[in-house]
Amino acid sequence: MLVLADPTLLRNALYIDGAWERPPGTDELPVTNPATGAELARLPQASREDTIEAIEAAQSAFPAWAALPARERSKLLKAWHDLIVANVDDLARILTAEQGKPLPEARGEILYGAAFFEWYAEEAKRVYGETIPAPKADQRLIVLRQPIGVCAAITPWNFPMAMIPRKAAPALAAGCTMVLKPASATPLSALALAELADRAGIPGGVFNVVPGRAGIVGDELATNPIVRKLTFTGSTEVGRELMAKASGTIKKISLELGGNAPVLVFDDADVGVAVQGALASKFRNMGQTCVCANRIYAQAGIYDEFVERFAEAVAALKVGDGFDESVQQGPLIDEAAVLKTEEHLRDAVARGARIVTGGGRHSLGGTYFQPTVVAGAIGDMLVAREETFGPLAPVFRFETEEEAVRMANDTEYGLAAYFFTRDNARIWRVGEALEFGVIGINTGITSFEGAPFGGLKASGIGREGSHLGIDEFLEIKYMCVAEICPVKVSEK
Ligand code: ADP
Q1: Complete DSSP assignment for 150-211
Q2: Ligand 1 pocket residues where CB is under 6 Å
Q3: Nearest ligand 1 atom, CA 181
Q4: Cα torsion angle, 46, 52, 53, 56, sign
């Protein structure tokens, strides 16, 4: 039983047009706790008709929401932020229950997510246009930035409380309305956010949540002509599919897709800082983040020392149920995640890697996995090419900076990269040479709502966060006003 100070935050219905709906006869899916397998709720799955109803509600709500002065939208987003912060403990319990991450990480994620509402509540007031010097005396040229309209968001299970605000906050700040399909594993966080939106006074239809099957809800969101913008976070594979589907109606799209983040540790790094940075980056959310270190490259001069100290830190991580406040690593989201991590580990060992710590499923059973480090990783292993998305850290050896940069860039992905060095010139050289959208230098954590997040290459399109993130939800309109007044230019 999930005990909450405010049990009404636990919703198990669709949220459409400001009302909670449980359409009769809909099929239901259980939401389970990955730590225990216990059922938390049975959630109705939105049908295509429910999804269309939500899209139409968002369409009806759009004109009034877009017309609301920015400072009024701002006040409502700020109220939503304040309610999230006030309910952080209950929200963290919901998140830990359905996702598995330890409570302190859950609280951190919720406050990070809330910060997007605060940040974009401010940014709503700064959607400025432009005037352009005209080619003719009686013309004035003006550029307006206007909300694009109804937006659809499809979000993953790894950071529900951060990924949803990262999309909803700029969209609503810009004056757009939204229909959200949360991941099937973590819909309760999304519904709790909707409950708080309602309490904050966000008008009905502005933010709608339709949990449901990807093939039905996701398909409708990607193809419905009313939806003018699709924003997705998830795998590259699904992103590619959604991009193709959205092409039918030429939607504006943002895609935040997979990563295969390299970490470069140079001989001149502070090894202690590198160990902590690699640990934070690799093992946050049990290795299940798109910016998680996937490949760690250590230079020959510090290789042995780095592997030893890193493995020692990894071995000390406490694994267990996320509700135990002392736990640092919860279970993985599901059996498929365990199987993939196992496959990558087996492949690495078969190709000559050495297990330094961990090495397989955890004695706690279920989807628990031992935080694992392997040394002697090489380029043709699966861990070098694919995102593991689990608690397995392979350490590769390199000799020169040039070789390290080449190996780091040798991937179709380009989301996050990290490197550790105390050489100032190298910071600029390597920082500019790495083909990634987010680069952490002497740190494993870069997340901040005021900074642009997004990937290059197969890692995606568009940016979230920062003043740049709101552009994803705005259209540019150019107005050429002629004959404004017959200007008399005095003749010489
Ligand atoms: P992950 O499982 O790592 O979260 P996915 O890309 O599989 O990554 O899923 C991310 C989100 O996309 C989830 O909400 C999922 O339900 C949704 N999704 C998965 N497949 C499709 C699809 N074919 N069409 C639309 N949405 C999809």
Answers
A1: EEEEE--SSSHHHHHHHHHHHHHHHT-EEEEE--TT-HHHHHHHHHHHHHHTPPTTSEEE--
A2: 154-157, 181, 183-184, 214-215, 218-219, 234-235, 238, 241-242
A3: 14
A4: positive
Best residue among 159, 238, 288 to mutate for probing ligand 1, ranked by most atoms within 8 Å of CB: 238
C-alpha Rg value of the chain to the nearest Å: 24
Residue bearing the CA closest to ligand 1, atom 14: 183
183 C-alpha vs ligand 1 centroid, how far in Å? 7
181 alpha carbon to ligand 1 midpoint, in Å?
9
Q: In sequence order, what E strands does 266-342 have?
A: 293-299
**Residue 394 bridge partners (DSSP):** 374
From first to last of its 492 residues, what are the pLDDT tens digits of the chain? 799 999 999 999 999 999 999 988 888 999 999 999 999 999 999 999 999 999 999 999 999 999 999 999 999 999 999 999 999 999 999 999 999 999 999 999 999 999 999 999 999 999 999 999 999 999 999 999 999 999 999 999 999 999 999 999 999 999 999 999 999 999 999 999 999 999 999 999 999 999 999 999 999 999 999 999 999 999 999 999 999 999 999 999 999 999 999 999 999 999 999 999 999 999 999 999 999 999 999 999 999 999 999 999 999 999 999 999 999 999 999 999 999 999 999 999 999 999 999 999 999 999 999 999 999 999 999 999 999 999 999 999 999 999 999 999 999 999 999 999 999 999 999 999 999 999 999 999 999 999 999 999 999 999 999 999 999 999 999 999 999 876 566 655
Active site residue 256: yes
Number of the ligand 1 atom closest to the C-alpha atom of 154: 14
Distance 157 CA to ligand 1 centre (A): 9
- CA atoms of 177 and 444, how far apart (whole Å): 34
